[in-house]
């Protein structure tokens, strides 16, 4: 029976592969004609395209290589057909599509710029991991004071030098919720904090205040190490992946921080006077009344919060960024936090200008990535409109599937049993475990001297009695003279011994809800599969499709377990 999983091999699996940038090279004429495996309209699917997709998806196509290759190529063609169908309906001209495309292009352009800086190509050596592992053989009990500006941290240091308690100063200066009380981080090992804080803590003498220490992009710190003690890290072979991740992320962050600082200077990024105050005044007062800020006036929207060579960052831009959720919101109770947030958003726009200056948008790989992201968007809207929203299921259809399945499930009709109610869960669990070793439940209760009555009960199902409802499943599973586990209900724990029971065949209407839902979903998946196949067939009648099956025979299929170029 065809399921939605089979359908999704034509849509979802390829969409996921596109998101991973293992995408179709959809530039017609980029390869010799003999390298073309298929054409869908004006788009070509080359051997290179197929091989990249195969490396990404081979595990999802079991069976012999020839069969798997044919299945994958058919899915690639079907996916491209759906994209072409969406384009024919003009979905790519929708304002939402155009806005999404702009955002995707900007995101990928910025990422391409950051990647070009070398942040994605950092290497961590074995010696570096071994050194960090040695450092983690001790841990230090640490307190910190944090402020987002140099004047604030200088004021904190002045109070400490004047005799104030370090922990009291931390409570006065640290933002609410930023650290535990007194700025006490407890014992930390090397690698747990960002640089340069991590190295300062590792090297600081006990009891001596260190700082001010600037962590670019975060703020300023004072550090006090209260104690040092030995630690026993796990063996290097176990900690290796964690240490490699820590070191790689440190290097990547250092590269990006330096690049952003250089960008700040190259583009002369400047925060407008009163920028943070203006944004706070717009956002905070309505939030105190649990209300959204009012729409910006044209004058408010045009207010400059930051400037850089080639553009300005306005109040309208800031409100859009806050609403989109693409960046973490600042702490509006701290003006330096808002200032830093505005600066970062302006630097992102400067990075976009720099990426375009370097013509990174002309790179074929970036263009393919944009196209595949937008194909995902088109597919989602197109399939939703033509398949998902047109699929409804009636009870009669689900019942027909149930009857066709040949299943003959039974349900508990009635049961006669002995039952005892206990208030203590541990006592009930112990009784359920030891009762099978006695003559019966009454003897087990007597032997344990529990002093509670054992009652004989009969229940007919379905029932409105909540106690018997709770016992339905355990009694169904139990054999005559068998016991249920301890079952919680209404502040008591029930233990029952089955005397006898009668089972009855179930109709579709008496099936448990989860089983009925499963049959409904099966019908829905069948309908979706049929609708999708019909849609693809109709597109084939409008869009020329050319597949060169014989050329597929000469294309290698990835061998499971062997390394590929996936990295």
UniProtKB/TrEMBL annotation:
GO molecular function, one term: peptidyl-prolyl cis-trans isomerase activity
Keyword Metal-binding listed: no
Record keyword Isomerase present: yes
Signal sequence residues: none
Origin: domain of life: Bacteria
InterPro entries for this protein: PPIase_dom_sf, PPIase_PpiC, PrsA_foldase, Trigger_fact/SurA_dom_sf
Ranges of residues in domain PpiC: 126-227
Keywords, comma-separated and alphabetical: Isomerase, Rotamase
Cross-referenced Pfam families: Rotamase_2
Protein name, as recorded: PpiC domain-containing protein
């Amino acid at each position: 029976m065809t399921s939605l999983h089979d359908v999704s091999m034509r849509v979802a699996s390829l969409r996921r592969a596109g998101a991973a940038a293992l995408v179709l090279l959809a530039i017609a004429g980029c390869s010799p004609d003999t390298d073309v495996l298929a054409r869908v309209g004006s788009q070509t699917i080359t051997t290179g395209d197929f091989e990249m997709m195969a490396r990404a998806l081979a595990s999802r196509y079991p069976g012999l290589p020839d069969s798997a290759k044919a299945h994958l190529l058919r899915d690639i063609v079907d996916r491209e057909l759906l994209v072409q169908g969406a384009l024919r309906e003009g979905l790519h001209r929708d304002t939402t599509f155009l806005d999404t495309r702009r955002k995707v292009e900007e995101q990928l352009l910025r990422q391409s710029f950051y990647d070009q800086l070398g942040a994605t190509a950092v290497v961590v050596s074995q010696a570096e991991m071994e050194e960090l592992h040695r450092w983690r053989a001790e841990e230090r009990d640490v307190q910190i004071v944090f402020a987002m500006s140099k004047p604030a941290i200088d004021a904190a240091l002045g109070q400490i030098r004047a005799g104030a308690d370090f922990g009291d100063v931390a409570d006065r200066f640290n933002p609410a919720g930023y650290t535990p009380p007194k700025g006490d981080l407890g014992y930390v090992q090397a690698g747990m904090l960002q640089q340069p804080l991590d190295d300062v803590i590792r090297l600081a003498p006990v009891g001596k205040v260190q700082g001010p220490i600037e962590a670019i992009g975060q703020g300023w710190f004072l550090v006090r190490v209260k104690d040092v003690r030995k630690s026993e890290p796990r063996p290097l072979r176990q900690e290796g992946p964690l240490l490699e991740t820590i070191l790689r992320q440190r290097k990547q962050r250092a590269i990006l921080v330096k690049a952003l600082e250089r960008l700040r200077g190259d583009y002369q990024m400047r925060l407008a006077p009163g920028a943070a105050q203006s944004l706070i005044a717009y956002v905070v007062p309505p939030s105190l009344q649990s209300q959204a800020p009012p729409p910006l006036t044209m004058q408010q929207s045009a207010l400059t919060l930051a400037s850089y060579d080639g553009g300005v960052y306005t109040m309208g831009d800031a409100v859009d960024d806050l609403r989109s959720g693409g960046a973490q919101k600042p702490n509006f109770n701290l003006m330096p936090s808002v200032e830093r947030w505005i600066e970062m958003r302006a630097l992102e726009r400067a990075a976009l200008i720099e990426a375009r200056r370097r013509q990174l948008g002309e790179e074929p790989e970036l263009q393919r990535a944009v196209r595949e992201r937008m194909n995902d968007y088109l597919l989602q809207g197109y399939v939703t409109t033509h398949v998902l929203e047109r699929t409804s299921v009636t009870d009669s259809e689900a019942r027909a599937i149930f009857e066709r399945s040949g299943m003959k499930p039974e349900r508990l009709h009635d049961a006669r049993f002995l039952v005892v109610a206990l208030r203590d869960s541990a006592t009930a669990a112990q009784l359920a475990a030891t009762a099978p070793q006695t003559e019966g439940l009454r003897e087990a209760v007597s032997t344990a001297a529990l002093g509670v009555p054992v009652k004989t009960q009969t229940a007919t199902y379905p029932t409105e009695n909540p106690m018997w409802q709770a016992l339905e499943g355990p009694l169904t599973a139990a054999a005559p003279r068998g016991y249920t586990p301890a079952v919680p209900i209404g502040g008591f724990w029930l233990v029952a011994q089955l005397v006898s029971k009668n089972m009855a065949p179930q109709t579709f209407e008496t099936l448990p809800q989860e089983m009925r839902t499963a049959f409904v979903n099966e019908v829905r998946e069948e309908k979706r599969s049929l609708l999708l196949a019909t849609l693809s067939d109709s597109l084939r009648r409008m869009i020329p499709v050319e597949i060169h099956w014989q050329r597929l025979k000469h294309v290698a299929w990835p061998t499971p377990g062997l390394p590929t170029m996936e990295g």
